[in-house]
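FAQ

Q: What does a record look like?
A: Structure on top, sequence underneath. For example:
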């Protein structure tokens, strides 16, 4: 569909710049705005709502012009907890319909409507956050006295192995996730000054509760921090220290399954007497916590792994133990002296989904209610690698680990296989180069399905403990990695740095052990361009209103060149990225966001820009092959 040129300037969102009350109450009258070029050939602007199922139109008035853009405003009453609206742009011979997904010449359905929520409390601290994900065992050894000793214990026939900090992790076939370096919570606390220097405002720790493995997703006791990390007291001290430094703390947990040696299950008696736990005691209450076959010890393991027995949420007692009771697992760590600021839920995509027992949409709202009762500002971060818009409507999660709308997209754009496709022998053989339009459509598709107040809380990542680090791929040069990082920090939401990415940490690709190397504290990485890239972007993110509260708009998607703008009513930031093999000349419609090129002709990193300004105000830029610019643009 060929669109009129002026449509490139049409924009609205759910921020305070376009909604009088982004988080309204029932019965309140709110005003919403849309903007476009001041000479746009629009006869009328209508706002369509559907209160209580009945279609209604409010006429928008042209209220002002600023920076070459005209603003139209209409008001309506919030009559429902979830209020949808669309804009109708009425011209002489066509009506354009505008939703979060974009503009059509046909009446769209409600899937991508703008939405205002009355019952969702947005976490204001997340919008300005820069997260730092730490795999605790490999970050810093603050107390060698609590290190795991060689042969200290054995699980499923595999003994613990003590490693030197400079050693490479063992492949799974040799180490079985039992190769320990001694990282602990005291080590994290000691590095708080480093995190502040980098620009971090929130720490996300992979699991820290009692567990035999390195990764600790095979928990044996939810109610205690592993002694090799310093125990409960170390967590209390770390939390206090982080909060004193103005930083938040998120803990990781799997409540979908436990380890087979968890005290509730206790298959082999490796850590508890066999009189404890469900496996060896069919009459115990904990038997109902798991999926046992009748009159048998055969049980269901997550992903068919016998080492990770799946929890059964038909059990009322299990629900009480995990999240309902005042001394439940999730509530304990939200209370003093730990005072954590949220939970990251492992394998949340499969949680409470067991064939005929599909309980996820019943239980997640209950978990949310329980957490928010204890701490209304606690972040609910869920692992889901795919489309999960159904969970992001204000009553379940605050955000997924945003692989779908960030990590998978950006990694593929710079030349890596899609993270799901590479698992398939058939799919990974297809050598497709993702286009800029693909990127724009994928990201828009994710964000357009969710209310703006949730879009602002998205957890944007490119690397993690589950995927190979992009800088460890031999065929991904520095400039491509840099492009992905710049785009990550430009997306609406909060960026997450995986520990050591800023340090060029070592590793290999292809399995999890390769992305879990010890932090290279012995390496002088503070003056490297990689560290300075992350540091510059992190401090920019946490202090810049346009990147915290502002809107986001794709300005260009041409071939393999992409431009994204973030903006408020004071300034704009534009990231331009090229994956082309040759230099190209591209148009940049800065005028569509009311902005212009900086007078010094340089980007934020002092790179000289080669541009030409056309009579209509359009900017033409010569974009070098494989490069990225981040430009601070004043408004017209």
């Amino acid at each position: 569909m060929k669109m009129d040129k002026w449509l490139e300037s049409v924009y609205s969102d759910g921020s305070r710049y376009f909604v009088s009350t982004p988080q309204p109450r029932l019965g309140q009258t709110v005003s919403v705005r849309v903007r476009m070029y001041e000479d746009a050939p629009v006869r009328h602007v209508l706002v369509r709502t559907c209160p209580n199922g009945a279609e209604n139109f409010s006429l928008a008035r042209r209220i002002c012009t600023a920076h070459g853009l005209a603003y139209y405003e209409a008001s309506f009453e919030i009559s429902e907890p979830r209020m949808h609206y669309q804009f109708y742009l009425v011209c002489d011979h066509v009506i354009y319909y505008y939703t979060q997904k974009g503009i059509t010449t046909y009446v769209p359905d409600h899937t991508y409507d703008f939405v205002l929520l009355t019952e969702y409390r947005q976490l204001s601290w997340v919008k300005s956050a820069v997260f730092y994900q730490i795999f605790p065992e490999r970050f810093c050894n603050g107390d060698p006295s609590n290190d795991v000793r060689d042969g200290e214990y054995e699980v499923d026939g595999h003994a613990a192995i003590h490693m030197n900090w400079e050693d490479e992790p063992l492949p799974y076939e040799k180490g079985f996730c039992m190769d320990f370096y001694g990282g602990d919570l005291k080590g994290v606390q000691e590095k708080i000054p480093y995190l502040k220097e980098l620009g971090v405002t929130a720490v996300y720790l992979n699991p820290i509760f009692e567990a035999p493995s390195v990764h600790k997703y095979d928990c044996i006791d939810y109610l205690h921090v592993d002694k090799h990390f310093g125990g409960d007291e170390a967590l209390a001290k770390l939390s206090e220290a982080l909060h004193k430094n103005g930083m938040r703390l998120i803990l990781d947990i799997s409540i979908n399954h436990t380890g087979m040696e968890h005290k509730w299950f206790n298959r082999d008696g490796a850590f508890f007497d066999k009189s404890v736990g469900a496996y060896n005691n069919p009459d115990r209450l904990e038997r109902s916590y798991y999926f046992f076959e009748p009159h048998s010890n055969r049980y269901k393991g997550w992903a068919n792994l016998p080492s990770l027995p799946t929890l059964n949420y038909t059990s009322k007692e299990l629900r009480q133990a995990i999240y309902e009771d005042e001394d439940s697992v999730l509530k304990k760590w939200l209370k003093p002296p730990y005072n954590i600021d949220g939970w990251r839920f492992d394998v949340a995509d499969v949680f409470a989904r067991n064939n005929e027992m599909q309980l996820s949409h019943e239980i997640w709202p209950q978990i949310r209610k329980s957490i928010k009762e204890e701490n209304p500002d606690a972040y609910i971060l869920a692992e889901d690698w795919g489309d999960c818009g159904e969970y992001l409507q204000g009553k379940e999660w605050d955000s997924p680990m945003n692989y779908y709308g960030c990590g998978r997209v950006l990694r593929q754009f710079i030349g890596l296989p899609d993270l799901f496709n590479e698992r398939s022998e058939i799919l990974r053989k297809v050598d497709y180069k993702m286009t800029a339009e693909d990127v724009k459509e994928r990201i828009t598709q994710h964000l357009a399905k969710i209310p703006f107040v949730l879009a602002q809380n998205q957890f944007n990542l490119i690397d993690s403990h589950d995927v190979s680090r992009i800088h460890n791929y031999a065929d991904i040069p520095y400039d491509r990695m840099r492009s992905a990082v710049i785009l990550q920090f430009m997306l609406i939401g909060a960026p997450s740095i995986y520990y050591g990415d800023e340090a060029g940490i070592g590793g290999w690709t292809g399995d999890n052990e390769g992305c879990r190397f010890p932090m290279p504290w012995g390496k002088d990485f503070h003056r490297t361009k990689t560290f300075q890239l992350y540091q510059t972007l992190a401090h920019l993110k946490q202090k810049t209103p346009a990147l915290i509260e502002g809107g986001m708009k794709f300005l260009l998607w041409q071939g393999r060149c992409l431009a994204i703008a973030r903006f408020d009513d004071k300034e704009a930031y534009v990231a331009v990225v090229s994956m082309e093999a040759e230099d190209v000349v591209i148009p940049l419609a800065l005028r569509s966001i009311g902005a212009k090129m900086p007078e010094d002709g340089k980007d934020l990193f002092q790179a000289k820009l080669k541009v030409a300004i056309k009579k209509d105000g359009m900017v033409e830029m010569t974009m070098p092959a494989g490069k990225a610019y981040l430009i601070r643009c004043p408004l017209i």
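Q: Is there anything notable about this one?
A: The radius of gyration is 26 Å.
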